Amino acid sequence: LPEDREKPIHVSADSASIDEKSGRTIYQGDVKITQGTLLIEADRVEMERGKEGVERVTAFGKQAHFRQKPDTDKPYTDAWGDTIIYKVEKEHLTLQKNAKVISDKDTFTGSRILYNLKTSVVDAYSDGKDGSSGRVEMIIQPKKDKDAQ
Amino acid sequence: MSTARTRLIIAALLLGPVLLYWGLGIAPSERSQPPKALQEGEDYFATDTRTRVFDDKGMLEQTLSTPRLDHYPDRAESELTSPEIVLYGTDGSVTTTTATQGTLPDDRAKALLTGNVQIKDRASSGATTLVLTETLTLYPDTKLAETDESVTILSDNTRYDATGMTASFENKTLKLLSNVQGLHENED
């Protein structure tokens, strides 16, 4: 939800290391991050904090998973990638390697996907390096089917 | 003449005790209690102590203050009441550790602190980190600390809770060993 960004970020993990000088915290092991309706699940997360609070979250996993409700009347958006970079201020998501987004029943896959959380705009790229088909794939559900389901 | 003299005597009678009281400087109730006698196995004790350690360049490196220190030769260690250990970093940071009780071996390699242990680490930038736990082993010379108990860490807009921690106040790094919960608030 739009107001997710105002909410505090809660993290749970097996262990963590904190570097007060650089403001970087690395969480390891069954990491779960929640912020309102936003959820990130990963094996390892690097969190960078600045003066205003958390600025950037980088999640690594096989695969890292992101989920958020874009709006009260919309279904959850789910995203996966071997690496997920969440820029908190810009509300941008970058999914790297085996990237996949399911947004309002439309599916996008590619080796890299940029997803704008505010506008729900998806930019998908594929460079074929990660063993994928080398092409971006989108499955757009017909509007009628979407409303019927 | 006699009335003047009488007045003088009365004034003397009134002022005398007050001046005597001031002259002694301490009221009966304020006179400090005699220090407790030696404990079993104790060879000496010291009250209101403050120890300062300097580095080889003459810079103040650490201070240890305690209202009472009891030394036990057989155990080659001292027991500290309400100790306060202050470590001064080369980068201008100051790390202050307090606890209800402490034990300090004669070689001063480490201090075991127990009961309401608090570490307040103030970086040279002014940023402050507060660590709260129940027991802690502090290694003053290397500015390391560790605990295997539950610990809470508070620093600007962030709170961590975990079980087990190792910390280096020289490098400003902390490792939380298990059951980590993090809470990051946004700046208002």
Give a description of the structure.
Chain B: Its main location: membrane. Chain B: InterPro entries: LipoPS_assembly_LptC-rel, LPS_export_LptC, LptC. Chain B: Belongs to the LptC family. The complex is a heterodimer of chains A (149) and B (188). Chain A is mainly β. Helix content of chain A is 4%, strand content 62%. In chain A, strands 1, 2, 3, 4, 5, 6, 7, 8, 9 and 10 form a ten-stranded antiparallel beta sheet that branches. Chain B is mostly beta strands. The model of chain B has no long low-confidence stretch (mean pLDDT 87). Chain B has one helix and eleven strands, in the order αβββββββββββ. Helices cover 12% and strands 55% of the residues of chain B. In chain B, a hairpin with a 5-residue loop joins strand 4 (84-88) and strand 5 (94-98). Chain B has a six-stranded antiparallel beta barrel with strand order 2-3-6-7-5-4. Chain B folds into two domains: 1-31; 36-184, Sandwich (lipopolysaccharide transport protein A fold). Chain B starts with a helix and ends with a strand.
Short description:
By secondary structure, chain A is mainly β. In chain A, 4% of the residues lie in helices and 62% in strands. The radius of gyration of chain A is 16 Å and the shape is globular.
CATH structural fold name of the largest domain in chain B: lipopolysaccharide transport protein A fold
Low-confidence stretches of chain B: none
**Spatial order of the strands forming the largest sheet of chain B:** 2-3-6-7-5-4
Shape of chain B: elongated
What percent of the residues of chain A sit in helical stretches (DSSP H or I)? under 10%
Number of helices of chain A: 1
Strand content of chain B: over 45%
Total tally of structural domains of chain B = 2
